[in-house]
Amino acid sequence: MMGSLAKGLKVIEAFSAERPRLSISETAEIAGLDRATARRCLLTLAELGYADYDGKFFTITPRVLRLGTGCLATMPLPRLVQPWLDRLSQEIGQSTSVSILDEGEIVYVARAAQQRVMSIALMPGSRLPAYCTSMGRVLLAALDEQRARQILSAKPLIARTEKTLTDIEALMRELAATRARGYAQIDQEVEIGLRSLAVPLFDARGQTIAALNVGLPANQEPMQEIAKKYLPALLRVQGELAKISI
Amino acid sequence: MMGSLAKGLKVIEAFSAERPRLSISETAEIAGLDRATARRCLLTLAELGYADYDGKFFTITPRVLRLGTGCLATMPLPRLVQPWLDRLSQEIGQSTSVSILDEGEIVYVARAAQQRVMSIALMPGSRLPAYCTSMGRVLLAALDEQRARQILSAKPLIARTEKTLTDIEALMRELAATRARGYAQIDQEVEIGLRSLAVPLFDARGQTIAALNVGLPANQEPMQEIAKKYLPALLRVQGELAKISI
DNA sequence: TGTACTTTGTTCGAATATCGCACAAAAAGG
DNA sequence: CCTTTTTGTGCGATATTCGAACAAAGTACA
């Protein structure tokens, strides 16, 4: 285990939307490192071009994007699914997305946006909690129960709206139901006004590797009509993608 | 300088779309490290959850996306420009994008796609060479001449199509012209069938910090009509964004 | 405005982890 | 089956990290 690599990565992760500019002490605090250690990490990152330093605050540079998006680029998934997403989105007139699971979060890897429904802009690399999203439910349902429970227990389940399920037993039951019916439906649990419907995407071995969803404004049609109306299209794409063995 | 952090980051960057799975020796070769060092880095990354190891090959995990997209998230730019891009794209019926410069490459930070023109899917985080793109020309034109020349000299200038400018003096003249006229136009230098038009975006101090462009299919209208038709809309958005002082 | 106090940044020797050579093991190739 | 190439690992020399102590900068309050 190379300790300094681990510490350097912690320092990079210390930067976020809320904290784009960090002093040495702040960095040390957030990353849980000694000030001296944080300083060495930051100076090294600056020297390598991953950070800028104005003598007081550090910021990270676009160079850091080479790390993460190098990763997105290694995934054939986004390129494979994008044309299907585009067609599907066009056909049903709604935004569609594909995401994968990283611990308790879903990570968007491809997206075809129609008019904006959500308040925040989602793009490849964006993250949302798994427990309250349709794609998250589908992806958690594919894990064994013990692992799913472990992930759900790891972080507090925030009620993002008054409709959000936050009881772990209720969530576990919902995962079982999702597994049984093959898709997940969410009614304004992430954000008021937003519903969504998701199905799993399988690899050649039949393992769930991603989820495909459609997002809908909540006032367009009654909740029970949604699956009837959009599920066939999602399942067709699911089937087509299974053929080309992702 | 923390050497091991620098080496670990090199290892992460060794992974790419062409080489998503690497053995220890391959990694060492690509990153220019000793095998023993590469091995320690990879095992550390695996232990931290940034990589997977099947006993033979390493792959990187979605966790790596936390590094890069943490960075994208720190930038207010994408969120600020996205609504404007969406409106602009809708209005002119073409794909629009905003990108920033990282050395010799442009990095897409926001995008509003209409029908696909380019063969490859562009998304936030995607990279293209600066010398042959309209946004790249605009961003290079904002640097001082010496720095621009240095960047252009750093890597061989590939002729991606028969129209691509690859002569450094010709490019420097084009940058000067771009600086003078305030926008850049590209006719199928990245890819046959694709034209584009870009303007700089300024921060509160008047510094160029990003570029805004529109991409067009090459057969839609004569080249000389493009600026006349689309430049006013781009300049209007440029002006609006200047007001809210990015 | 001066002084005490808090926070932040930096230095330095002791302690520790890393480097990469050299060797061992395993594949690959003939 | 032996040679060649590739891959994995132990170990001493060496460079890096640790964290307490110090210095500097900023704050609070009389």
Question: Any overview of this molecule?
Answer:
The structure is a homodimer of 246-residue chains. In chain A, strand 1 (51-53) and strand 2 form a beta hairpin. Chain A has a six-stranded antiparallel β-sheet, with helices on both faces. A two-stranded antiparallel ribbon of chain A has the order 1-2. The first copy, chain A, has 246 residues and is an alpha+beta fold. Chain A has helices spanning 3-14, 24-31, 35-48, 65-74, 76-92, 134-141, 145-154, 168-181, 223-243, and strands spanning 51-53, 58-60, 95-102, 105-112, 127-129, 184-187, 194-202, 208-217. Chain A folds into two domains: 3-65, Arc Repressor Mutant, subunit A (Orthogonal Bundle); 75-243, Beta-Lactamase. The first copy, chain A, is built from nine helices and eight strands. In chain A, 46% of the residues lie in helices and 20% in strands. Chain A is elongated, with a radius of gyration of 20 Å. Chain A starts with a helix and ends with a helix. Chain A binds a DNA duplex (30 and 30 nucleotides) through helix 1 and helix 3.
